[in-house]
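Students often ask why inverse folding is considered easier than folding. One informal answer: many sequences map to the same fold, so there is more than one right answer. In these notes we will look at a single instance of the problem. The structure comes first.
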């Protein structure tokens, strides 16, 4: 089997299983950022593309690989892959759904806790010798919250959302969710989550957390109307994708005080540079944001789980078995 890998070369080597099948796979390594014709020239008879979750896989590349049968994202996201072109050329697109659920759920809780305890400001206070002053201010104001004090709304309840709901339940938080198709009653009990329509969720919850893929329907969904519907004095978390959020609207919600803080593991326009719109805001906005560099899902365990899924699908493709986690629904192909 011939695999064109677009991403970090060490991944295919590091997570290669010790099997006879793996030894038969020929891999061409390419970094992100090349033109389609350069990728095609690297392995014109590629049967599979394994791609970094943020690598562009356009239709113009798919068209140049006549033997291509499968495109596999290294992660959960697949919005950078031209699904229409893949389907038109009878190419299955697969992802690693669930690989990073526990890792991203932990990152979500970290950001929630970081906001509630205002860790960046408090860290700086200790470094500046203002420890007792800040402590006494909190004691006098009674303003520090626990997750158990909060109603948390999860928008989307896939693998990551479910893992987050279970962690929140362990903290004693009251968990609500909304998604396109409501869970069965038994599942709601299992994940300690109660269903609400989106508008009701936004109005009720102290913390809103996104757990959605980027689609035409969800892109830029967190706009000024969205933030206006949120409960005054609430918190906002995004560990999904930056494209879900309108940066200008988020900045305005923070500036106005509608939101107390935002915790963001991901932004649009990645890789983020110093001229990013959210980094160009005044201190009254940037001081209310906790950033992390999109690391929620890249733990070593996540990659081990993800590459286990990839190698399983490579072997299934070779053996003519049905592929797993196909996102463009070509179930009849293999």
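Output (designed amino acids):
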């Amino acid at each position: 089997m011939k695999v064109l890998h677009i991403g970090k070369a060490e991944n295919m080597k590091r997570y290669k299983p010790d099997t006879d099948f793996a030894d038969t796979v020929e891999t061409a390594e390419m970094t992100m950022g090349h033109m389609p014709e350069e990728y095609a020239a690297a392995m014109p008879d590629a049967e599979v593309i394994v791609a970094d979750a943020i690598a562009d896989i356009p239709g113009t590349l798919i068209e140049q690989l006549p033997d291509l049968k499968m495109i596999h994202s290294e992660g959960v996201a697949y919005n950078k892959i031209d699904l229409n072109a893949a389907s038109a050329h009878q190419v299955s697109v697969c992802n690693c759904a669930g690989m990073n659920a526990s890792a991203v759920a932990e990152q979500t809780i970290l950001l929630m806790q970081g906001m509630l305890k205002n860790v960046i400001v408090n860290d700086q206070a200790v470094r500046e010798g203002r420890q007792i002053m800040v402590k006494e201010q909190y004691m006098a104001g009674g303003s520090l919250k626990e997750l158990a004090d909060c109603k948390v709304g999860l928008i989307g309840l896939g693998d990551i959302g479910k893992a987050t709901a279970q962690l929140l339940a362990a903290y004693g938080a009251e968990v609500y969710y909304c998604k396109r198709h409501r869970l069965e009653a038994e599942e709601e009990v299992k994940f300690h989550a109660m269903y609400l329509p989106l508008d009701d969720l936004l109005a009720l919850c102290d913390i809103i957390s996104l757990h959605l893929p980027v689609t035409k329907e969800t892109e830029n969904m967190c706009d000024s109307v969205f933030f206006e519907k949120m409960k005054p004095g609430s918190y906002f978390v995004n560990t999904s994708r930056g494209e879900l959020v309108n940066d200008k609207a988020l900045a305005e919600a923070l500036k106005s005080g509608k939101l107390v803080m935002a915790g963001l593991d991901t932004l649009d326009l990645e890789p983020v540079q110093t001229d990013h719109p959210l980094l160009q805001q005044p201190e009254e906005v940037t001081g209310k944001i906790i950033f992390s560099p999109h690391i929620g899902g890249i733990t070593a365990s996540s990659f081990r789980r993800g590459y286990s899924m990839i190698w399983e699908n490579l072997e299934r493709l070779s053996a003519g078995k049905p592929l797993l986690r196909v996102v463009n629904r070509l179930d009849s192909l293999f």
